[in-house]
Amino acid sequence: MMRPLRFSVLAYCLLLWSSALSVSGQGNEDHETLRVFIFAGQSNMVGSDSKVGDIKRFPPYAGLENPQEKVLFNYCIGRENKRRSEGWVALHPVNKVVGPELSFARKVTRHIQAPVGIIKVAAGGTHLGGDWNPDDPIGFKMYPLALEAIRKALAGLDDKGIKYRLEGFMWHQGENDMFNGDYMESYGRNLKSFLASWRRDLRTPDLKFYIGELCTKTIWGMDLRPRMYAISLGQREVTSSDVRAEYVPTSHVGTEIGRPVGLHYHYGTLGQLQHGENYAAAYLRTIGLTVRSPRPLKKWPYKKGSVVKLFILAGHRNMEGERAFRQELRDLKGGESLSQDNAKIAYKYDLGGGYHRSQGWEPLGLTGYYDTFGPELSFARTVVGATEGNIAIAKFTHSGSQIIDWTPEGSMAKSRHIYPKFIQFVKDSIEELSAKGHEVEVEGIFYHMGENDMSHYPYRKDAADRVKAIIAESRKDLEQPGLRWFVSQQPPTNVENLNKLDVVGKVNEVAASDPASFHLKAFDLPPQEKMLVISTAGIVQLGEFLARGYLKNR
């Protein structure tokens, strides 16, 4: 622990003056000045329902349970019982939970040479309209508390003669404002005032804010869809008009698996780790760093004029591969071969609702943005082994979506409407292959049904009808009346109240009434560690299962 900080007026004025000068020239040329980031918000910024002991379950993040000695950390976390660092310390997990600052710091420090410091002030169950209100704070009065904590932390750097610049403000909050009509309706105005107040009070007019999206994969993204949407509109209102504020998507990150149905309110361990990486990626883009390696097809794999069989893969959490990690492939028989790029298969993808897209057609391989992969790898290997000719794969997923988002009409949450983007993605894939001189045969759309939908009664009730509508409209819009759909389904959530709905039987009826639709029951996959989500071995087997379903019905 550091000694108590002495706070002089002169030091404070110099502190504010130097901060205001430095942030306006945000870039990556200065490798000496400490870059200070502020993390603030409510429970999904705290790290609620995460566990440091679970980090080892997620290979890409191994080691983050340990202190990061080269990263400075100053914090005040909690509501009634606050945990304080009482000065600058090495970055470490607080109270055995995982905050996004852990993965953020590791990713950023791997790409910049400058030292990093993090100030965190967060408390669960707080709202922007009241607790964080700069002008009239109530309740836990988070704004004045955070302002005091940040000023004190920065003064501590000044006392030590550490040159720094305020580099970014990471904000994740809004869930509690959904429950107050006035706060919900005025979220955009309140957020705009919030940003202006920080820039004024910290004398940093150009301070960059990174506004984290509320996660639509949680139960609140389903049963409180209109309220979540209202908060998102307020966030986007600010980030679309403020050039120094950026909307950071988070709906595609992992979420905690709760009981009894699997759905939860918080990111949990995996989601927090990915949450932090999202902020890191956004910041690194801000300073002009590209952390993504290009994966071009150096040689087009198909002869001009040849036929290309195009397979469309689509879906939610497991089609995206939420909990299938590349590091675990080496432990599976044949897994090593799946980890190698296959330049004989052209691959195009749009993942996480547009969060991660291919740069044109790439070789089939490991492309997940969190060292993850989906069933496309084993699917292709199985199909190639039993099929002659050229094959290409196009994959479109959003693990933060529900089936209603894929329907032609969508929902009142217009920004979550996936269907038009999905259809355009398929059209573009066909047109791009045709433009290269190929005759394109769309072999089918392979859609793995929404896992979250099976855990929420209203969504499960309408799941089969919604899939039927998607199939019918897609054939019209793609002008392919005989387009085959292979709809796969894992065992739905086994809970007494939900089991009153025979969703498997309903989907089977849809397929039975349509000779070009096939219902593939993926009921023999390896036992799942958690409800809803399939892990590495299961995702490999899911790909093989989908391929066998195609081969049987081609």
Q: Your description of this structure?
A:
The structure is a single chain. The protein is α/β, with parallel strands linked by helices. It starts with 8 loop residues before the first helix and ends with a helix. The strands form 2 sheets. Strands 1, 2, 3, 4, 5, 6, 7 and 8 form an 8-stranded mixed beta sheet that branches. α6 packs across α8, α12 (376-384) packs parallel to α17 and α15 packs parallel to α16 (503-512). It contains 17 helices and 16 strands. It is globular, with a radius of gyration of 25 Å. α16 links the parallel β15 (485-489) and β16. The chain has 2 domains: 29-286, SGNH hydrolase (Rossmann fold, 3-Layer(aba) Sandwich), CATH 3.40.50.1110; 307-553, Rossmann fold, CATH 3.40.50.1110. 35% of the residues lie in helices and 18% in strands. The model is unreliable at 1-25 (pLDDT under 50).
Q: Which structural category fits the helices and strands? A: alpha/beta
Strand content: 15-25%
Please, what is the average pLDDT? 94
Shape: globular
State the fourth-level CATH superfamily of the largest domain: SGNH hydrolase
CATH topology (level 3) name of the largest domain? Rossmann fold
CATH class wording of the largest domain: Alpha Beta
Q: State the domain count.
A: 2
Spatial separation of the terminal alpha carbons: 67 Å
The total beta strand count reads 16
CATH architecture descriptor text of the largest domain: 3-Layer(aba) Sandwich
Could you give a short account of the major beta sheet? Answer: 8 strands, mixed
Instruction: Please give the count of helices.
Output: 17
Radius of gyration: 25 Å
Helix amount, in percent? 25-40%
Oligomeric state, counting identical vs distinct chains: single chain
Could you name the ranges where pLDDT drops below 50 across 5 or more consecutive residues?
1-25
